[in-house]
Structure formats: C-alpha cells, structure tokens
C-alpha cells in the first residue's frame, strides 16, 4: 500500500463540507453502525463523523458511550468487553426511544446494525465513497492508547490516493498521539465552548479545524478561528433556522443527525 499523501493543514488548509453526517446519520439509522453510514450516503453527504473506542482486547470499534446499555441494551463497559462479544451486539436498541418503536423495528436484528469494527467500517466507507471524521472517544484513562491503536490501524487500511480522514477529539492527549502517529492527517480540536487557551493548544497540536457545540458558538469566535486559518465546524445542528444562522456567522460545516433535511434546504 502506498503511503498517505502529505496534507497541507493551514492555509490553504482543510476544506470541510457544508453538511456532515453525525455518527453516520443518527436520526435516520442507529448511530455508529454500518446502517447509519449507508443512510448518510443515501442522504447525499460525502463526509461522516463517527466515534471510535477500544474493546477490552484493544480492538477499535464504532461506539460512543463508555457503557454498552444505551444502544445495545446489554449491561457492561466497552473497556471490559472483548471484540468477539461486542461485534455480536445489536446497536439498534434505544433508536426507538427517540424515533419510535416502529422505526426501531425496521433495524432490529440486521447485520449492519451490529457494532462494527474499524476494518468493517473502512470497507463500508470506501464502498460508499465517504470521507470520515474519526472522533477518538476513549474510555477513562485510555485517551493516548485509543488514538495510537486507532491511527496505527487506520494507516494500514486507508488508501493513499483517497482524501485523508480528519481525526478529532475532545482529549488533547488523543490529538497529541494522533499527531505523532499520523502527522500528515488533519486534526480537529473539539470543545463544547471555546477555551481561553485555544490558540496555543491548537497550534501545539497542529490542528486544522475547530469543532464547537453549536449553541455556544459566537460569531466572534468563528471569525477569530477563521482569521487564524482554521476551518470551523459545529455540532449537532438539526434545525434549519439554526443552521442558517450558523452559516451566516461564517461556520464552514454543520455536523447533523439529519443530513437529509439540511442538504435539501441549505
């Protein structure tokens, strides 16, 4: 396999899509599953965000929570459960709590709704023509290890002639590890609210983009980040009015559970 191409982080910098699917397309199919990636592609997006955690035997899988219960209905912690068990779990549990039992019934028991490995995910992404925003979502105490294992594995899976993945995290330790393992891939600095030291932190981690919680995103913050050469994304935007306001503030990318709705109107 060829080595990933060098990637210019700042400027001209990272070019993000206007609309990006969140956890695949969380409102259209169970989050962080192959079904959700397929739903995002069917909606028309070219980029998707998803979360990666490690199983007890150190295998990267798509999952958001430290515990298994919310999406699989099974008690236990991800960090205490091996891949062989995790991959048999149906991640459509809980979809009905938010989107209705009838909606959940359409996904229950499907093979593409089981918790996917990183290898299965990459194969699906390549088949669908999607570029990933890989959020390192580690269990407590595993920020560095999760990033190192995930990036090392991903370097061996992602073709060198494809647009490189964006690696994002709330954990600075994860971003630092990502910069060591895959310095040529862009990194996204995640924060619920812009921290006072964002300039120094993003420069030290050589980040390409800033990702903020949409309700706490101020126009002045967007302007400052863009003036510094960073792309700006916000999460998780599902309303059209909110989306328009954020784009008017200068936000580059809306990360959404409803890519179908936002793509059609924005």
UniProtKB/TrEMBL annotation:
Molecular function via GO: phosphoric diester hydrolase activity
InterPro entries in UniProt: GP_PDE_dom, PLC-like_Pdiesterase_TIM-brl
Lineage of source species: Bacteria, Pseudomonadati, Pseudomonadota, Alphaproteobacteria, Rhodospirillales
Pfam family, one: GDPD
GO terms under biological process: lipid metabolic process
Domain of life: Bacteria
Protein name per its UniProtKB record: Glycerophosphoryl diester phosphodiesterase
GP-PDE domain boundaries: 17-266
């Amino acid at each position: 396999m060829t080595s990933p191409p060098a990637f210019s982080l700042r400027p001209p910098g990272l070019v993000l899509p206007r609309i990006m699917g969140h956890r695949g397309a969380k409102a259209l199919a169970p989050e962080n599953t192959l079904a959700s990636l397929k739903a995002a592609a069917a909606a028309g997006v070219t980029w998707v965000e998803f979360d990666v955690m490690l199983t007890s035997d150190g295998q990267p899988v798509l999952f958001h929570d430290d515990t298994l219960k919310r999406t699989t209905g099974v008690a236990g912690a991800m960090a205490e459960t091996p891949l062989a068990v995790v991959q048999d779990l149906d991640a459509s549990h809980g979809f009905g709590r938010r989107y209705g039992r009838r909606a959940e019934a359409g996904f229950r028991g499907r093979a593409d709704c089981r918790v996917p490995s990183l290898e299965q995910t990459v194969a699906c992404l390549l088949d669908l023509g999607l570029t990933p925003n890989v959020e390192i979502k580690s269990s407590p105490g595993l920020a560095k290890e999760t990033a190192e294992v995930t990036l090392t594995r991903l370097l061996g899976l992602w073709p060198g002639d494809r647009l490189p993945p964006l690696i994002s995290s709330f954990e600075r330790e994860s971003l630092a590890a990502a910069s060591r393992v895959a310095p040529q891939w862009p990194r996204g600095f995640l924060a619920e609210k812009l921290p006072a030291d964002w300039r120094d932190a993003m420069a030290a981690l050589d980040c390409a983009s800033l990702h903020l919680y949409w309700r706490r995103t101020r126009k002045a913050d967007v302007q400052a980040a863009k003036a510094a050469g960073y792309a700006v994304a916000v999460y998780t935007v599902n309303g059209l009015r909110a989306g328009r306001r954020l784009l008017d503030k200068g936000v580059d990318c809306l990360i959404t559970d409803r890519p179908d709705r936002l793509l059609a109107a924005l």
